[in-house]
Design a protein that fits this description.
The chain has 5 helices and 6 strands. By secondary structure, it is α/β, with parallel strands linked by helices. It has one domain: CBS-domain (Roll). Strands 1-2-3 form a 3-stranded mixed sheet. A 3-stranded mixed sheet has the order 4-5-6. Strand 4, helix 4 and strand 5 form a beta-alpha-beta unit. The chain is elongated.
């Protein structure tokens, strides 16, 4: 792993926080949203995954792969299934004040491409992706 200078006020990765580079205004779905509607939203907004929330708190995460595996492959009706039926419940998260260096290590060790960012009250505040990291010069693949 290389130590790179960031374009953000000359900080190094060791003190740059996730909050400074994360994607904000993340497209989310509620636990009771039908999978069919959720997929339409994902396609229209051009996103590959959506955090599932209830009253702003992170409950899970859904990717297109989850929909293929848990709905299409199993022959289930996406109009009858809810987001809560498809979401991955045990999601690796990070806090908004975590350092980018710590998150890069976590993503590499767990082979993740995205991590929901939460505050100390478990409220979803953003999403950190391998694309966000690539913009500042990190390759986590």
């Amino acid at each position: 792993m290389k130590e790179a200078m960031t374009p953000l006020r000359g900080q190094t990765m060791s003190n740059l926080t996730v909050e400074e580079i994360m994607t904000r205004n993340v497209i989310t779905v509620e636990t009771e949203e039908p999978v069919f509607d959720m997929v339409k939203k994902m396609i229209n907004k051009n996103v590959e995954c959506v955090p599932v929330t209830r009253a702003g708190k992170l409950m899970g995460l859904i990717t297109f792969r989850d929909v293929i595996r848990k709905v299409i492959y199993e022959g289930k009706d996406p109009k009858k299934m809810k987001a809560k039926d498809v979401m991955t419940k045990s999601v690796v998260t990070c806090y908004n004040d975590a350092t980018v260096l710590d998150v890069v290590k976590l993503m590499k060790n767990r082979r993740l491409r995205r991590i929901p960012v939460i505050d100390r009250n478990r409220k979803l505040v953003g999403l950190i992706t391998n694309f966000d990291l690539a913009i500042i010069g990190w390759d986590v693949d």
